[in-house]
């Protein structure tokens, strides 16, 4: 398309966004979305295990701590995208 003059970077200190930078951002976002999907599946698995009635107190405590940790990771990942959905 258009070619920028070298003056843009040398004289005016204006650096256009290159495709490599855009691709890295898109790759990072895609990986975070995949991680978010994995975290949500893990959270639903832990919630399903918590619904079983025959858990000992220690098992229930461990599952609850896992659920809290996973929920925090989900919230941190969602903050990257600027969207936080509360349960």
Overview of this structure, please?
The protein has about 90 residues and is mainly alpha-helical. The chain has one domain (about 5-80). The protein has helices spanning about 5-10, 20-50, 55-80. Helix 2 (about 20-50) runs antiparallel to helix 3 (about 55-80). The termini are far apart. The protein is rod-shaped. It is built from three helices and no strands. The mean pLDDT is about 85.
Radius of gyration: 22 Å
List the secondary-structure elements in sequence, H or E: HHH
Question: Quick one: how many beta strands?
Answer: 0
Estimate percent helicity: over 70%
Spatial separation of the terminal alpha carbons: 47 Å
Identify low-pLDDT runs. none
Mean pLDDT: 87
Write the SSE topology.
Elements: H1 7-10, H2 19-51, H3 57-81
Summed up, what is this model?
The chain is mainly α and 87 residues long. Helix content is 71%, strand content 0%. It has helices at 7-10, 19-51, 57-81.
Provide keyphrases for this structure.
3 helices, 0% strand, rod-shaped
């Amino acid at each position: 398309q258009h070619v920028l003059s070298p003056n843009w970077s040398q004289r005016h200190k204006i650096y256009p966004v290159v495709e490599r930078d855009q691709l890295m951002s898109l790759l990072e976002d895609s990986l975070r979305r995949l991680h978010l999907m994995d975290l949500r599946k893990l959270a639903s698995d832990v919630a399903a295990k918590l619904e079983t009635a025959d858990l000992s107190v220690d098992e229930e405590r461990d599952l609850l701590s896992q659920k809290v940790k996973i929920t925090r990771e989900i919230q941190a990942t969602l903050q990257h995208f600027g969207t936080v959905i509360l349960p």
